């Protein structure tokens, strides 16, 4: 589902009218209707106000449910499990991931410099 459909769907779930959303976004209702119809796209500033009015993340409006997460099922399950760890354990996992990513970047950099 793309942005216009998600926008209308979430607005309706929240029980908000197009007029109220337009007011919260600081645009005319006819302009807001263009967003939901897909005939126009909001500016970043207006998009931010829409996200705040709907109380959702920007990702919720822009991406499908599984579009942003890991594609590998095993990795996705591992990340879900990490979410259940204590703050200290999550920090340790994040440090480990940061280290692996830095090693990867260093390898890419040295390959580029020597190649």
Automatic annotation (TrEMBL):
InterPro entries per the UniProt record, alphabetical: Cro/C1-type_HTH, Lambda_DNA-bd_dom_sf, RstR
SMART domains linked: HTH_XRE (SM00530)
Gene3D superfamilies: lambda repressor-like DNA-binding domains
Leader sequence segment: none
CDD domains: HTH_XRE
Domain HTH cro/C1-type: from-to ranges: 7-61
Keyword Lyase: no
Keywords noted in UniProt: DNA-binding
Entry keyword DNA-binding: yes
Name listed for the protein in its UniProt record: Helix-turn-helix transcriptional regulator
């Amino acid at each position: 589902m793309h942005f216009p459909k998600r926008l209308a769907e979430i607005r309706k779930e929240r029980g908000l009218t197009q007029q109220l959303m337009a007011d919260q976004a600081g645009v005319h209702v006819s302009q807001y209707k263009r967003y939901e119809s897909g005939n126009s796209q909001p500016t970043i500033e207006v998009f931010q106000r829409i996200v705040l009015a709907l109380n959702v993340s920007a990702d919720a409006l822009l991406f499908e449910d599984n579009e942003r997460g890991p594609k590998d099922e095993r990795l996705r399950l591992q990340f879900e499990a990490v979410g259940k760890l204590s703050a200290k354990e999550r920090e340790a996992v994040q440090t480990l991931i940061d280290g692996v990513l830095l090693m990867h970047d260093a390898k890419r950099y040295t390959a580029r410099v020597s190649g």
